[in-house]
Design goal:
The protein is α+β, with helices and mostly antiparallel strands. It has a single domain, classed as RRM (RNA recognition motif) domain (Alpha-Beta Plaits). Helix content is 27%, strand content 37%. The strands form two sheets. Strands 1-2-6-3 form a four-stranded antiparallel β-sheet.
């Protein structure tokens, strides 16, 4: 159950779809306090795949304006998960 607290949502962009097809890498938004080992275990348990490596990136929230009011989006963490050759995550197959 704790694995679902680590992985928040998948990230589906043009770049992530190209890397999925080219080098079997998948992108996820993850908990800011999670480390690489925790992310690897969570992906392996949730999707039943073998993970080769995990890279993480701290993404800073953008500053947005609406008229005179300035706000900031939240900071978040992105994980790039590389799977073993031949492994697939069925969740991404229709994308």
């Amino acid at each position: 159950m704790i694995n679902y607290r680590i992985i928040h949502q998948p990230i589906v962009t043009e770049k992530s779809v190209l890397l999925k097809e080219k080098s079997n890498q998948f992108f996820f938004e993850v908990d800011k306090t999670a480390n690489r080992v925790e992310i690897k275990k969570a992906v392996e348990q949730i999707f039943k795949v073998k993970v080769v490596s995990v890279n993480t990136i701290q993404v800073k929230g953008k500053i947005k304006r609406k008229g005179r009011i300035t706000g900031k989006r939240k900071d978040w963490k992105k994980a790039i998960v590389k799977l073993m050759p031949g492994e697939r995550i069925e969740f991404f197959e229709g994308v």
